[in-house]
Amino acid sequence: MVELKTDASIDAMYKTGQVVAQALTAVRKAADVGVSLLELDGVAREVLNAAGATSPFLGYRPSFAPTPFPAVICASVNDAIVHGIPTTYRLRDGDLVSIDCGAQLGGWAGDSAISFVVGTARPADTRLIGTAERALAAGIEAAVVGNRMGDIAHAIGTVCRGAGYGIMEDYGGHGIGRRMHEDPPVPNEGRPGRGMPLRHGTVLAIEPMLIAGGGDAYRTDQDGWTLRTTDGSRAAHTEHTVAITESGPRVLTARD
């Protein structure tokens, strides 16, 4: 069941989304050669704590997971696509890093992700991240009243496939509200004009996940969480929490 949010609820979700935006901004600023992924997790924790927010990631255990998630961010490096567990690994020059972060505040959830390169960026990585950001922007642009879910999926998929990248199988965005994961699922590829009609008050986490090698397959690490490309190519992940309104899409996790 899809819960349509009131305007007041969307305003409250914006407050949560801004905590997520602040956490990601702080993590991006702290990320440098020699900094560990656990240290980045600590940066995000400080932002959440200062805002009086909690993490929907910490302790989260869906049916596929062998253990509860132990951190407040997912930190996925190079060939890791999503769900990377922060470890003592220290960032190296040229690492491609994807950080996913969520917050829970006042009974509402927010969720967002960014990808960036630490130090010197390879041109191929710059192109991959740029395409992920364009795919996200295209999906957001299609998130308007009167469109359907397939229009969002088609917009994302067109950008990704047009650039020659793979789209992670079986994963996509999701509804979000009182919980981090709600109905409906938000595919990253689909046919325009198909699927659920988009109505005022629908709030979605739109999140393209791109694989540089062009394939869609992935494998799961022994930790049971980290999902990696099967061909060893790099990946990028971008995400925003977006409210669909009569006046257009409102990005609740927008960063300054």
UniProtKB/TrEMBL annotation:
Superkingdom: Bacteria
Residues that, per the record, bind a divalent metal cation 2: 111, 174, 207, 239
Cofactor note: Binds 2 divalent metal cations per subunit. Has a high-affinity and a low affinity metal-binding site. The true nature of the physiological cofactor is under debate. The enzyme is active with cobalt, zinc, manganese or divalent iron ions. Most likely, methionine aminopeptidases function as mononuclear Fe(2+)-metalloproteases under physiological conditions, and the catalytically relevant metal-binding site has been assigned to the histidine-containing high-affinity site.
Role description: Removes the N-terminal methionine from nascent proteins. The N-terminal methionine is often cleaved when the second residue in the primary sequence is small and uncharged (Met-Ala-, Cys, Gly, Pro, Ser, Thr, or Val). Requires deformylation of the N(alpha)-formylated initiator methionine before it can be hydrolyzed.
Cofactor: Co(2+); Zn(2+); Mn(2+); Fe(2+)
Domain Peptidase M24 stretches: 12-246
Keywords from the UniProt entry: Aminopeptidase, Hydrolase, Metal-binding, Protease
GO molecular function, one term: aminopeptidase activity
Uppermost EC category: hydrolase
PANTHER family: METHIONINE AMINOPEPTIDASE
Known EC number: 3.4.11.18
Gene transcribed to yield this protein: map_5
The protein's assembly and partners: Monomer.
Residues where substrate binds: 83, 181
Annotated family: Belongs to the peptidase M24A family. Methionine aminopeptidase type 1 subfamily.
Binding site for a divalent metal cation 1: 100, 111, 239
Name of the protein: Methionine aminopeptidase
Keyword Lyase: no
